[in-house]
């Protein structure tokens, strides 16, 4: 249990605890339970704490918290004392989760650590230019290695996907979560969450600077990629002075903004542009979201022989290009697993809360997403809606 000077309390995260007693000025941190793995705890007898127990971990940082140095120091201690570290991307692969993860990969490797990188999905071709991408594995057997003593995950807003892999762990090790999504439930043992940061790569960079870890050109390029892609090349509304300052620092260390923009924003295929054109034709007013929206079906993707990468960026582009009368943009698309995904962008309204309330989604204030399982898109007089799959004898269930 952690007690601050003004009697605020933070509960144990759902992955448990795992640290020695610590006293620091106005707070006290007491010995805690093991984190996760196959070994049972004497207190609970459970192999793995339930993912539904989403109370914050004992070390949780937010941007203006007086616990900043405590969290940074605890992470630095864990990193320095670890020999083999497993890094995880989010399942939603983008420039930020990949860039922040690979940035850490280069830094930790420079420290002489044995570093493995796991991603549950393939890395898009637009991100293949990043140094170290060849080190990313999709082999889940990595979790079974018995000498892993630290796990770090970057830019994963809910931690849901990792629950299928955690039971494979052979040892009780801490989980560090770096993130900038306001909806993050603080599922890690140590959480470095900064909702006001423009990207997770920015959060990681602040930690690296604080801890004085060894930087190199490759790490700078990866971290700069994370910041650049999540801020639309320092153009989007979530771009902060800290993000601009971090970008300048990383550029001085060898990051090349031109290469990042060329590979991630200026790298559209003919197929991609045709699909974008179709999306523009279908623009309509979405009353449920009070937003301008468009829709892309599986049939569209098959027709143009496209893939999900070809769809990426439409919501950001529309959010940037539409006039000031349009505050929110939503892009709906069908997925090959029988679901509908939504990408939401805003210039001011908190769409993360809206996406969470409507569809159980999440994200941060100006950029959010959601997924409706067992659903498809249906058009009626130019208006597209999400329809849930029901039994054949039931009427369609329109959810948007």
UniProtKB/TrEMBL annotation:
A Pfam family per the record: DHH
InterPro entries: DDH_dom (IPR001667), DHH_sf (IPR038763), DHHA1_dom (IPR003156), Oligoribo/pAp-PDE_c-di-AMP_PDE (IPR051319)
Positions of the DHHA1 domain: 304-377
Protein name (Swiss-Prot/TrEMBL): Uncharacterized protein
SUPFAM superfamilies in the record: DHH phosphoesterases
Annotated DDH domain residues: 84-227
Highest taxon of source: Bacteria
